Amino acid sequence: MGFLEQLSRDFQNNIIAGDRYMMLLRGLGTTLLIALCAAIIGIVLGSVIALMRLSNFRLGKRFYPFRAISSFYVDVIRGTPMVVQLMIMYYIILAASSLSKEVIAIISFGLNSAAYTSEIVRGGILAVDKGQSEAGRSLGLSASQTMLLVVLPQSVRIVIPSLFNEFIMLLKETSVVGFIGLMDLTKAGDFIRSRTYAAFFPLLSVAVIYFVIVSILTRVFARIERGLRKGDGRTI
Prior knowledge:
By secondary structure, the chain is mainly α. About 80% of the residues lie in helices and about 0% in strands. The protein has 9 helices and no strands.
């Protein structure tokens, strides 16, 4: 039997037979769902955490409670592996809940993403010229109104490229959801490997799918970023 013929048979057995390619596609759907929902949670919660870290509210002379709480949260999340956070959420915190594995994974990745997103948003806010805040206050706006109406809108364009990168990283990080028995893209490939006793096509297919998705997203995000830069009157 020739090499190409053997390769064709292996492809047929690992990908086509038993509609195993559908398992990969369903796994991809789960991966994208978790990543997208977690990204939304991460952006919303991360923005709140970023504002908490910039809060000037204090108790006494030196204690800033919002800063302390948000800083502790970011340090804990960034200082522990994502897979450990996922298992703690599934096996300990939400072990007695009736939530599905997908929802638990979304919550876990959303909380993780929020810590990283908060730093991105905070950096974007700090990158806005202080004169903008002073201009807002001179117009009679309160500190909160200045932040919401003047500073945040300007910081959006600054943070969008980094948020795109965070989403791509989040998409790849979801590959660990198999640790709680969830059939995502990576787990689907490993499941096929365990049934066919062949690793080449199942795992290569997973890698290729990830590569294609990330490449498409990278190009789409790059085009959006170029559009934003043109809106600023800048060129790449």
